[in-house]
Every structure is written in structure tokens, then in C-alpha cells.
Amino acid sequence: MKRIVWLSLAAIVIVAALLFNYYVGTYNKLQILDEAVNSDWAQIDNQLKRRNDLIPNLVQTVKGYSSHEKEVLANVSDARAKLAGSMNSKDVKAISKDSEQLSSALSRLLVVVEQYPNLKADKSFVALQDELAGTENRIAVARKDYNLKVKVYNAIIRTFPTSVVAKIAGMQQREYYQISSEDKKVPEVKFD
């Protein structure tokens, strides 16, 4: 009888130790995935900051050529400030929306630039435009990397039995960085 009690107790201890090991291992894996998502988000943040730092130089260069285009320049500055504010909030949806607004304002600025052939040939403007294009590409890559990490993280925390550990640890699904429906529309190209 004593032997059965000791075997039962040993079995309970072994099962408890195995469950504890599983929990700890799964919890640590989830933390690593969460950090990977945070790291990729930091890269998006970094590239958006880089773009925000380039914009005042671009605006100043254009100002010298187009003093009567104040509304376009003001829209770019306002959109930049709004994005900077939402970047401080770490709200993925707000950052995505404000980033798209800034991209739209920059597109309107580049339309204005088309009206000034001397500006288009200006070396500092061309260099700034190249830097901005490179930064936009970096943002696209960082966004893709972030969304891939979010996909893996979200899939893992939704699968059983990992979902139990995730729920106990208070881990929730992360949001994807999405573009607006306006930016999904096919642009209209006209040749006059």
C-alpha cells in the first residue's frame, strides 16, 4: 500500500515537473517571438524617423523655388508632425494612417516639383529625393519583415496547447501594419 502511494506521488511530481517544463519552454519561446516582433517594429519606427528627418531639408529646398506653393509645403509639415506624434503613441493603426497621409502629402509636393525644371536639376534636391526614395524602400521592407514576424507570432499563440500558455501569460495577438484602402487603388495614368 505504501508503495502504491509513493508511486502515485512520484507520478504526480513527474507529471507536474513535465507540465512546468513545458510551460517555461513555451513561455520563453513566446517571449522570443514577441521580442522579434518588437525589434521589427523598431525598424519601422527607425525608418519613419529617418523619413521625418529628411523632410524639413526637402521642404526648405523646395521653398526656395516655389514660394507661392505654401499650402502644399504646409500640408507636408503638418502630416510630418502628425506622424511624429503618433509614433510616440506606438499605436500601429495611427502610425499606419499618418504615414499614408505623409506619403500622400509628399506625392503632392513632388507634383509641384515637376513645375520647376531648375529645382529638378538642383543637386541637393536630387540627393534628398534619392534619400527619400531609399527610405521609402526601407520602410516597405521593414513593414514586410514586421508583418511576417506578426504572422508567425499570431499563429503560434493561437495554436493549442501554446494558446493555453499564451492566455495564462496574457499574450495577445499583434496588429499587422496595413496600408489604407485608398493606397490600394490602382493609380490613374493620363498621357496628355
Describe this structure in words.
The longest helix is centred in the first third of the chain and has 64 residues, at 2-65. It contains 7 helices and no strands. It is an all-alpha fold. The protein is rod-shaped, with a radius of gyration of 26 Å. Helix 1 packs antiparallel against helix 2 (70-89), helix 1 runs antiparallel to helix 5 and helix 2 packs antiparallel against helix 3 (92-113). 83% of the residues lie in helices and 0% in strands.
Can you lay out the helices and strands and say which pair or pack?
Layout: H1 2-65, H2 70-89, H3 92-113, H4 117-121, H5 123-158, H6 162-169, H7 181-184
Helix pairs in contact: 1-2, 1-5, 1-6, 2-3
